[in-house]
């Protein structure tokens, strides 16, 4: 099961997508999110908060 998350980024951008994977590259961790059919790799340290109705908001 992939959670649908609403993510707030440090840039001020807010996006909603399905969390698909998490991985590490060169000692940097990334979350892979599917948004409107496209995959985005988001650095975890660039995510200010995420939320889902089932888990609430995590800052």
Automatic annotation (TrEMBL):
User: InterPro entries of this UniProt entry?
Assistant: ROF, Rof-like_sf, Rof/RNase_P-like
Tell me what this protein is called: Uncharacterized protein
Which lineage ranks, top first, belong to the organism behind this chain?
A: Eukaryota, Metazoa, Ecdysozoa, Arthropoda, Hexapoda
